[in-house]
Amino acid sequence: MRIFMPFFSIMFCLVICTNHAKGQDFLVKGVVFEKGTNIRIALAEIVNKRTQLGIGSNDLGIFEIKANIGDTLYIRKRDMLEQQIIVQGDKSIIIYLVRAVNQLEDVTIKGQSKKQDLEDIKQEFRNKGVYKDGKSSVLSSIFHPLNAIYNLFGSEPKNARRFSRYADNEIKQSQIDVYFNSTIISNNSNLTGQNLEKFMLDYRPEFDKVQYWNSYDYIKYIKESSKKFTDTLGKGK
């Protein structure tokens, strides 16, 4: 019997240590996007069901909240469907929220937030040298966008000019993405899966055409173009 005592003692200690480790809260880091777009969602509410503690995402959609493995996090934002996830570990998480309405308010898209972010990076080009050598991972690019931009373009004058062209195009494309994205297209057409992806590639409008459009102009374009696209698919059978 004494032979087995050390074994049981070790197993007991392992169980106690494991349960103790599971009981330790840690910081979970994440970022919130609108599904189907590259738009980051600021001021989304993230609540831990167990602790009832909540925080808001910052201007880049990034948040940090204390949690434990198995905790349920609720993510909420006005006019968007609530999302919930189970914490699996301490790895960074990406959350996609779906817009809850079929049509958006009649607004003129300014893209000021995106523009300001890119202008800030331009200023960094003027103030600093190379920010970091090497390549950035996908998560690193999401949580540290400056790193990814610097790694891509560097700090030489010719690369700064390349970035300026990149920034101008990004601003234009982000304005299109606000309304021409998979969520809004799905809500205003019967397209899904590969057909939806092909439509988004083949019928993506040019900025010069849409720069003065409002939400209703986009939805009208989506409905008319998706019907034309569907008719084309029917002829191909």
TrEMBL record:
SUPFAM superfamilies under this entry? Carboxypeptidase regulatory domain-like
Asked if Signal is a keyword of the record, the answer is yes
Q: Which UniProt keywords apply?
A: Signal
Residues in the signal sequence: 1-21
- InterPro entries from the UniProt entry: CarboxyPept-like_regulatory (IPR008969)
Q: Which domain of life is it from?
A: Bacteria
Q: What name does the UniProt record give this protein? A: Carboxypeptidase-like regulatory domain-containing protein
